[in-house]
Specification:
This protein has 8 helices and 10 strands. By secondary structure, the protein is α+β, with helices and mostly antiparallel strands. The protein has 2 domains: 32-153, Beta Barrel (Butyryl-CoA Dehydrogenase, subunit A, domain 2); 162-309, Up-down Bundle (Butyryl-CoA Dehydrogenase, subunit A, domain 3). Strands 1-4-5-8 form a 4-stranded mixed β-sheet. Strand 2 (69-73) and strand 3 form a beta hairpin.
Amino acid sequence: MVGVNEALGRTVTPFTFPPDSPNLHMLQATVNDAQRVKYLEPYARGETISAIAISEPGAGADPAAMITRARRDGDDWVLDGRKIWVSKVDEADFTVVMAVTDPARGARGGISAFVVDRGTPGFEVARAIPIIGGHTTYEVVLDNCRLPAGQLLGAEGQGFAPMQLRLIVRRLQMGAWCLGMARRALTMLCQHANERTTFGALLADRQAIQWWVADAETRIHCLQLMLWHAACRQDAGADVRTEASMIKLYGTELATDVIDWAMQAHGAMGMTKELPLQLMAQRVRVMRIYEGPSEVHRWVLARNRLREAK
């Protein structure tokens, strides 16, 4: 997955391999036999599209603060609440919705996952929200959305751990995209620096350019090793939550810097839409927000390390 997504990171042509890998991992960890046949198998074959609804208007980077509620009513579950920043829900055949089933427990045993089919009464796409980079995300309203008991994904109250697994996979995927983007931007910077002459000298002979190249090359190598290490540990079944946070944080900020240096080196041409750099810059800017903003990852990493020291 890491190798494929690094290659995808080098292109600005929109493309997603079916199925979307993070949701696939979450389903693999939670489906029962009936859900495996109905949802996982056609999804794994690329025949269906999925979405996931986690964030809420008042609970973005903190899933434990969600208030969308799922309550039992006989043999059914009834969902009420509001979700935001839900990608692909406009075309999804089904959406995994995270909801609170036990407010007293919250993230420690009180959050459950449900599969909501397209067209389910009470599940409404309220509005489209355009964001930079040409992407669109959506807000969803759940109003007396009634689901059969069989739509519960995994065990009641145990939705937080598989959701974290999904986030881990996405963060590793994002690190690979960033590695591909950074490598392409560095290649463009070096090619331009070896061709462009200013004030009688090549840009490649300027110390500012040389330091950008040296820093980019070093940090790209670091990200590559971080990714391979985490991918190997993930394949072996290890807990890589910490590594995934580091990679998401480090990768997005590395790609931001290298793309910006490439744009700066290209001068006015770097500001145009004739080069792919502006599309890469918009893409990585959005990535510094979703799946946890950089500031939250820094806070979590520092908190965990300080607890270890204590």
